[in-house]
Amino acid sequence: SSSRHSLRSMSTSVPSTMRAAMVRETGDASMLKIEKDVPVPTPSDGQVLVKNEFAGINFIDTYHRSGLYKRDLPFIGGQEGGGVVAAVTPKAEKEGARVGDRVAYSVFGSYAEFTAVPAAKLLPVPEKVPLDVATACVVQGLTAHYLTSDCNAGLVKEGEWCLIHGVGGGTCQWAAQMAKLRGFKVIGTCAKGKQDVASKLGLDELIALEEVPGTSYEDYESMDVAKAVLEMTGGQGVKCVIDGIGKATLDISLDSLARRGVFISFGNASGAVPAFPPLRLIGKSAFLTRPKLLDYTVDRAELLYRANEIMQWLQDGKLSVSVDTAFPLDDAPQGHIYLEAGKSKGKVLYKI
């Protein structure tokens, strides 16, 4: 690993300590604590040091903090950020990284003033795209991109119907717009409280549901969604369902499919999908996939193909991104509380 001396850094020298939101023990949001004397990471050769302007808050961060997903303690929270390259190592420079580059990325430890990031993981951000929007696009944008492109294995074609659940929330706001950009006809579901956001996405049909009492989440038992979908599609059903809700929507998703349609189950906002027999797919000879982003960004080329297409759409004004709220990093617990309550109508960030 390179010593600090072989780092090329911005004219302002990089400090030795920084502010960061640390988790020393797992539990509720109060376990996310701001510490002011955390050592600034020293990038190993091939990495750069990014001075963060924003960090993205994702549901997976709350799972790491609560202990649902195990991590070695202590750790700096977050795995998504955006900012400016403050220092480069020789190998990173060979790969094209330069001090002053505007970048976004997904690696652990983004709830901090500085993060060491492998040059291979950097997403270049064009001048016309604001850094908060670019940060919002890393996990949610890339996820929406693969969900609406390669993940459906060509089983849905231009002009055919696609059902996307939860289009009032972050990832599926993106997915709904990208599905339209790809020429699909789109039906979205959302909570009535998020109808204002969902109605601006250019959907062909929107099913707005009552909220579960005392929450901001849509109640999928408040109406017969599958019946409505069949009516909207002339009795045919949809060629593709994109479902990040999980347990609450399993039956709706399967019952909404057209013949040889694909059920893309990518999330568990309402709990994990319970086991079910493959024979349930025989009604429509349906396909099922349970994907993750890592398998759709297998190398630098695939990562850039997705990121560059998204950045181009943003530059051309073809995608509208709603950054819901940016909490100051010093209010770190509040960001998690807000996300966990299901209140967001878009991306939730920390302003570093």
Summarize the structure.
The chain has 352 residues and is α/β, with parallel strands linked by helices.
Structural write-up:
With 352 residues, the chain is an alpha/beta fold. Helices cover 24% and strands 26% of the residues. It is built from 10 helices and 17 strands. It has helices at residues 59-66, 90-94, 131-137, 139-148, 170-181, 195-198, 225-232, 250-256, 300-315, 332-340; strands at residues 8-9, 17-23, 32-39, 47-56, 75-76, 81-88, 102-105, 114-118, 123-124, 161-164, 185-191, 205-209, 238-243, 257-265, 287-289, 323-328, 347-351. The strands form 3 sheets. Strands 1, 4, 6, 7, 8, 9, 16 and 17 form an 8-stranded mixed beta sheet that branches. A 6-stranded parallel beta sheet has the order 12-11-10-13-14-15, with helices on both faces. A 3-stranded antiparallel beta sheet has the order 3-2-5, with no helix packed on it. Strand 16 (323-328), helix 10 (332-340) and strand 17 form a beta-alpha-beta unit. Helix 4 packs across helix 5, helix 4 (139-148) packs across helix 9 (300-315) and helix 7 (225-232) packs parallel to helix 8. The longest helix has 16 residues, at 300-315. The model has no long low-confidence stretch (mean pLDDT 93).
- In terms of DSSP E residues, the strand content is 25-35%
Spatial shape: globular
Question: End-to-end distance, in Å?
Answer: 27 Å
Total strands: the figure is 17
Order of helices and strands: EEEEHEEHEEEHHEHEHEHEHEEHEHE
Largest sheet: 8 strands, mixed
